[in-house]
Amino acid sequence: MPESTSADGHEQQTVQDDKAIEKVDATQLLLDNLGGTSGMIYTAIPVVAFVTASALVALPIAVGVAIAIALVVTVLRLKRGEPIAQASGGLLGVVVAGGVAAWTGSAGGYFLIGIWLSLGGAALMLISILARRPLTGLLWNALHGNEYAWRSSRSVVRAHYTATTTFVVLFGARYVVQDWLYDTDATGWLAFARIAMGTPLLALAILVTVWAFRRSTAQLVHSNPA
User: Fold this and answer.
1) Is the pLDDT of residue 22 over 50?
2) Which of 24, 36, 108, 122 could bridge across to 172 with cysteines, CB 3.0–4.6 Å?
3) Nearest to 147 by CA among 22, 58, 46
4) Model confidence pLDDT, tens digit, residues 104-125
5) CA-CA distance, 44 to 70, in Å (whole number)?
């Protein structure tokens, strides 16, 4: 009988561990859906093409060049087996950015959507902090079926304050720097800032978020499985 009880306990623990692994994998899958390094490189290619073309030819032609290159990149991503939504997202962004540039009659207009999205992202993250519900914590709990009282753990809450604040700084810095460059009509530097403040800073923010997610999983899922 004791052996049966031990076996049942071992089986229950195995099931709980499997659930925890599945949830961690779901978290990693969400982060992977951001596009990863290759996705951000794909996004940078049309930007470089647009800025280069806008310095050599008329603005409408430069917009057409950026869209054409984005279309080629989209086809290549689809051939690599990426989901349609993920692969075509960059193309949609280029079309919208190009449309804004054409509407404003300025090459700098290509970056306006990104500038305002950065401001919106910083505001959203900051509001969640002021409301004492850091957004990364809400996201982690949503991925786990809202099963855990994550705000009852001080260390977990601190981790998510840190992760969410990292995004506030990231988006805020993007907005301040790129809005200033837009106002000074420094299109070349604006493109450089768009790329330089994209991959490296986003990678850092994601690393901090992964750390916060893992701390939450270790302290709440493993120690108190649902």
Assistant:
1) no
2) 122
3) 22
4) 999 999 999 999 999 999 999 9
5) 10
